[in-house]
Amino acid sequence: LRQPVPDPPRPGSTEEQRLIQMRRLVRRFNGEFVPAMTDVPEQLRLLSQPVYRYRDEDQGISDGAVFALAQGNDPEVLIVLELLRLNPGEERVWRYSLARVSSMQMRVRLDDREIWSVERYWTRPRSPASPRSPTANTSSKSAHRSGSISAPADSSCRAMTKTFSSGRRAICCC
User: Fold this and answer.
1) What pLDDT sits at residue 39?
2) What angle do CA 5, 109, 71 make, to 5 degrees?
3) pLDDT average per 10 residues of sequence, the chain (174 residues)
4) What's the pTM value of the predicted model, to 2 decimals?
């Protein structure tokens, strides 16, 4: 789900100003994940450079960027920040979405308040018990909800990418 950013700044008038604003906004997020090998939570590191920057005026998105929370350089969670106009004539608003890139248990906080968490959905991806295995028990798949954003407990979400009119693809979060 897409959520409005609480206490957002007034949008900058240039791309450079908005990138500075997005970097400030994304620093309000922090997260942790629990590796299967240790079961000890580890803090994720924010990659300060967006991994993707886009705009889609047809969808009302005047600026957007995808940032990553990572273990080392390995992204575990994507944070999507967008500046958009919901209806013609209205003010533009900042909103965010989150997407998992890992099967590990994770939590994300915004301004030190937990807003999203997902459970581990497999620990041995190549085992017969893997949810991707043809013999996997699909009846045990369920969604996990914490805070204000829902995320699937497995990776079966089909809406993870969006193709824009320009032909470019971007992450689209659940």
Assistant:
1) 85
2) 115
3) 92 96 97 89 95 94 97 95 91 96 95 95 65 49 35 39 47 43
4) 0.72
In the beta sheet, which residues pair with residue 89?
Answer: none
List Cβ neighbours of 11 (8 Å cut-off, separation of 6 or more).
18, 21, 62, 63, 83, 92, 94
Q: How far is CA 117 from CA 14, 69, 99, 121, in A?
A: 34, 14, 11, 12
DSSP string, 71-140: ETTEEEEEEEEEEE-SSTTSPPEEEEEEEE-SSSEEEEEETTEEEEEE----S-TTSTTSTTSTT--GGG
Other beta carbons less than 10 A from residue 82's beta carbon: 25
pLDDT at 131: 58
Alpha-carbon span 99 to 78, nearest angstrom: 5
**Residue found under tokens 């890139």:** 101
Token pair, residue 34, equals 């629990």
Structure token pair of residue 38: 């240790």
Residue carrying structure tokens 């609480």: 6
> Among residues 45, 163, 156, which one has the least CA distance to residue 103?
156
Q: Looking at residue 20, what is its pLDDT?
A: 97
| 61 phi and psi angles, rounded to 5 deg | -95, 110
